[in-house]
Amino acid sequence: MATKLNTRLGVGNPTIVTDVDTLTEIIAEAIAELVPATTVGPAPLLDRAGLAQALACSIPQIDRLRRRGAPCVMVGDSPRFIFADVISFLRARGGQ
């Protein structure tokens, strides 16, 4: 994973990521590679803060992922997330 991420980030080269979308994709790829594909136990619904904590990222990052199509279930006006579904979404996106 580190080699792939280093290559993507241009480690060893003076590459600077200035595009938020590219940085978002890099973060999503790294998270998808680090989080196990399976989880044990029930799939509770997570709110934005809970998902951000589970993925070790910010709530604005969750909002960006949601705008890009991350699956959610609406409970009233509030989006809720099933962790495994979001991980599947991140894995399926790959480098997109």
If you had to describe this structure to a student in words, what would you say it looks like?
The chain has 96 residues and is mainly alpha-helical. It has one domain (2-93). It has helices at residues 2-9, 20-34, 48-55, 59-67, 83-93; strands at 45-46, 73-75, 78-82. Strands 1-3-2 form a 3-stranded antiparallel β-sheet. The two termini are 17 Å apart. 12% of the residues are buried. The model has no long low-confidence stretch (mean pLDDT 81).
SSE topology sketch:
Elements: H1 2-9, H2 20-34, E1 45-46, H3 48-55, H4 59-67, E2 73-75, E3 78-82, H5 83-93
Antiparallel strand pairs: 1-3, 2-3
Helix pairs in contact: 2-5, 3-4
The total count of strands amounts to 3
How many individual helices? 5
Task: Kindly name the structural category.
Answer: mainly alpha
Q: Provide the low-confidence segments as ranges.
A: none
How is the main sheet built?
3 strands, antiparallel
Oligomer: single chain
List the strand order in the largest sheet: 1-3-2
